[in-house]
UniProtKB/TrEMBL annotation, chain A:
It holds the Pfam family BPD_transp_1. Gene3D superfamilies: MetI-like. This is sn-glycerol-3-phosphate transport system permease protein UgpE. It comes from the Bacteria. PANTHER family: ABC TRANSPORTER PERMEASE PROTEIN MG189-RELATED-RELATED (PTHR43744), SN-GLYCEROL-3-PHOSPHATE TRANSPORT SYSTEM PERMEASE PROTEIN UGPE (PTHR43744:SF8). One of its GO terms (biological process) is transmembrane transport. It is a multi-pass membrane protein. Keywords: Cell inner membrane, Cell membrane, Membrane, Transmembrane, Transmembrane helix, Transport. Residues 78-269 form the ABC transmembrane type-1 domain. Part of the ABC transporter complex UgpBAEC involved in sn-glycerol-3-phosphate (G3P) import. Probably responsible for the translocation of the substrate across the membrane.
From TrEMBL, chain B:
One of its GO terms (molecular function) is ATP hydrolysis activity. Pfam families: ABC_tran (PF00005), OB_MalK (PF17912). Keywords: ATP-binding, Cell inner membrane, Cell membrane, Membrane, Nucleotide-binding, Sugar transport, Translocase, Transport. Belongs to the ABC transporter superfamily. The lineage of its organism: Bacteria, Pseudomonadati, Pseudomonadota, Alphaproteobacteria, Rhodobacterales. This is sn-glycerol-3-phosphate ABC transporter ATP-binding protein UgpC.
Amino acid sequence: MVENRPFLTFLTHAVLIIGVLFLCFPVWMALVASTHGPEALSSSPIPLWFGDRAWENYSQLLVGGLPEAGGVPIGSMMFNSLIMALVITFGKIAISIISAYAIVYFQFPFRMGFFWMIFITLMLPVEVRILPTFDVVVKMGMLNTYAGLTVPLIASATATFLFRQFFLTIPDELVEAARIDRAGPLRFFWDILLPLSRTNIAALFIILFIYGWNQYLWPLLITTDESLYTVVMGIQRMVNSGESLPVWHYIMGTAVLAMIPPVIVVVAMQKLFVKGLVESEK
Amino acid sequence: MATLSINSLGKVYPGGVTAVSDVNVDIADGEFIVLVGPSGCGKSTILRMIAGLEGITSGDLQIDDRRVNDLEPGERDIAMVFQNYALYPHMSVRGNMEYGLKNEGLPKAQIAERIAEAARTLRLEEFLDRKPANLSGGQRQRVAMGRAIVRDPKVFLFDEPLSNLDAKLRTQLRAELKALHKRLGATFVYVTHDQVEAMSLADRIIIMSNGKVEQIGTPMDLYLRPASRFVADFIGSPSMNVLDGTVSSDRRSLQLNGSHQIDFGAELPAAAGNQIAIGIRPEHLHQNTAGETRIELSVGFIEQLGADTVVHGTLAGSQSPLAVRLNGVQARDSGDSIALSCGRDQIHLFDGTTGQRLNWDNQ
């Protein structure tokens, strides 16, 4: 919009600034709270500026281990979360790009049938199929393993669908040119399809990483061994630590730490992410 | 460089639509063949069958006496240039050109040599490291040709390669293509819907309609002796005037729809009372009464082209459209009438029902 009206400019900026403050305030509170002792947060008024216990709190969290969270250091929970998020992300992208490739570029019996079967699973949220999936995982002996944490979450109808839609926009002539250039199916996939999907992969990477990182219900069901706890579970356990008072300074510190990896991923890949969402490079 | 032989080639799509039926042609080594016809006539299907991108339902396809029906496109030793270029958008110009050669497993030195030569030929040297997105349409099409040239194939296939370019660039690239063909001496098969492109490029033209071959011949064959009314209409601009009429009882004259009667002074190759059509090219009608055959044109509108003037109108006293190409700048008002004549040897006759050419002793 190229209108030049001072009042409107003021209004739009005011709305934006209020929105930003509104969004940032909880994050700010978490950051501030994590630098105080336990008493400061249980009394009123709660502090709005940093306290003096930042170093103590964070070192205790990262390496010391808390009795409230099962005595496991947050560092190892973060590591578990990272493994889980990365395996889910790479697994989902790999599986869905391959299945979309099969569905778009190969003729085989019941091709559309398979596509619809994948598509229909989109309608079932994780919670609906969680009991049967749990049953399968138990029978395969995958409780309390990284495999149990990640494998059942890898199948992804959404990503398959997105890749399929993207592949359909690639002109047929490109495929034909590649056939004439003696590129077999694997070579075409590797040399042409994959580089062209670069921005789509980046966009999905961000979305799926955050999805994997934020998983709560599934790890809660599948792990009883404390060494496999993820950071999101850790936060939850600290909040429900029985009869003692919640340790808000530690909880907030953990929340701040848990925010860091997704932020890094978004910041590092945002250029590609935006490109992947808007661009049609043809 | 190779010969290409097509024997009773046919294509039926699943679902029963016949795209091409019974095409027979032998293409000589180094020949420039143009497939031309209106859209949907099956010309591209033939090209894609030669390339191996489309399965062959019936018939045989041989390149250099080797049956290639069941070979993959990459194994047929052909190269193809597409209408929308089909360049790999993420690769540089060099990457596009060397991709096929790399897949073939050619040594690096040889690849570099071939690319350098093709780039020189097509004046692409300074663009080798650019991406296709940063090239103009004409440059992209040259890259697509370069990708074909470096492969040094037996047969070059072109699928309407100039259709996406503007008129001026098209003329320029047409000349470049012709020169390229001369220098390479390779076999070219070229598909277009533009009869001017076909006439100016081809050694021989295959003209098609509705999946069937109408005529195969040199451009001048098609122009001077069109095998059917369809060919007569398709080749030449403005198209040939075709007028329907009835053969008179003495078979020496034709009663046109309207008041005109044309005397031929010789026996027509059709029975009395039959419907036939006569064809006269607009450029063969003259503004005098020297020719044996005379007709009158009622002016509708005129197109001033500078070098000549095309007058469109109708045959006087009827609704049949008629056009004439007159030399130089000519002014005419709508409704004027012009007396025209043409030599008897420039009249084509076509059967009224089948549209096939009727040969007669008119020379």
